[in-house]
Protein: CRP-like cAMP-binding protein
Amino acid sequence: MNRLMKPGARERETLLNSGLLSALGVESVAAMMEIAAIGNLPPRQLLFREGEPADMLHSVLSGYVRVYKLDPDGREADVELYGPGDLIGASVVLDGGRYGATAQAAEPSLIARFDLKRVRDIAGRRPDLAMALANALTGQLARAFASLADDRLHTAPQRVARYLLAQCPVDKATSFRLPYQKSLLAGKLGLAPEALSRAFSMLRGHGVNVRGRLVHIGDPDALRRI
Amino acid sequence: MNRLMKPGARERETLLNSGLLSALGVESVAAMMEIAAIGNLPPRQLLFREGEPADMLHSVLSGYVRVYKLDPDGREADVELYGPGDLIGASVVLDGGRYGATAQAAEPSLIARFDLKRVRDIAGRRPDLAMALANALTGQLARAFASLADDRLHTAPQRVARYLLAQCPVDKATSFRLPYQKSLLAGKLGLAPEALSRAFSMLRGHGVNVRGRLVHIGDPDALRRI
DNA sequence: CGGTCCTTTGATGGTATTCAATACACGTGG
DNA sequence: CCACGTGTATTGAATACCATCAAAGGACCG
Structure:
């Protein structure tokens, strides 16, 4: 982390709307603000490594953070991708143990860090914080379960189709921009970049058009039937 | 659930040692005991279904509970397997929403149920309960991440080898019994039963011998090198 | 305008799923 | 105690799917 600083007005605003703090009472918010440190990360910077003693809780203010696990021989598998407002679930280590995965900024990112010991301390006195943590974790667990089932049940084109549908809630033709580069999306979906590319080109026959990060969905219903 | 009853002495004992209650103060334990209901499940009985409004928190006292997700066309993917002492993570729905997966007893099982509204109520007043929930959830999230990465990084024989090594912590030849049937294990590892069978027979060449539920590990080091 | 990184496309091999048929284990009842 | 039947496990063959390697094509930024 290059520069650490107290949150300014803009960062406080963003933090207030983040998943973790938005549900807290004013006093807990104040307590958390008190111990927040803001950091600016260049791409590829690591926030923490798998196996390190966990001392900080992390939350994304802007940008994206990729969390992955490593093979003995160096291969990586992404397990989650966090964006603005997200609490980094893998950094919630409440028992004072070690991080279970590695976190890396996927693009220039702004993140908030909280000393874990102090967070435990506050949460031990303030149920709203403990509940907010538990709540965030249930959401993350649900997402992890969904990924796991998705991996095991669906082929690459199906997973991509489902992702696209999740991005455009409207039930008619839409265009939108991918929020990050395709190699990141590939990792998130558990695919090699090549497989994502091939999935896109196969979906072209089902009303999907991709140019750069711009995606056009011609027929959501057709996608749903893949 | 066939019969619901207040916990007797034996069930209270088991509950006290379960992951959720073991870390609580006496008053929180009492409050939770107060609202606990014990149920005896026959195999294949469902505890809850994906999409149903969530009203109960579940914990396994004995037996095993399989949690899975369903495809539109009926195929199932197991996302977690819970045993004695485990809090069923997919039943921790703190926001009053819906269950995100289906839970089914895999064998005759004894489980404890807690009214979710009341749990939320207690946790809102008692930080130790909220923290115990958060703690249990971090563990589950870590396990889910591990499964996800395992699926994406390792082949079937490797996953099986890792599972076996995790069952026999000692670093020398050992024998032990699988705690459940192989089809369950296959689901847990994200494999079709046939693939598990083939993995076992390939591991035979690396010092693993399987007869029924009895497993003999001849050379843990060899397994680690798979 | 040039270089670097990302993405696409092609060819190949390994790996798991699926379907089908057989073998085995276990619990039940004769 | 043995015979039987149901559900579970194994084995085989064919197929589908994805990772990997290699190379060429684009996008983006200095």
Q: What stands out?
A: Chain A has eight helices and eleven strands. Residues 181-183, 193-194, 196-198, 200-201 of chain A lie near DNA strand C (CB under 10 Å from a C1').
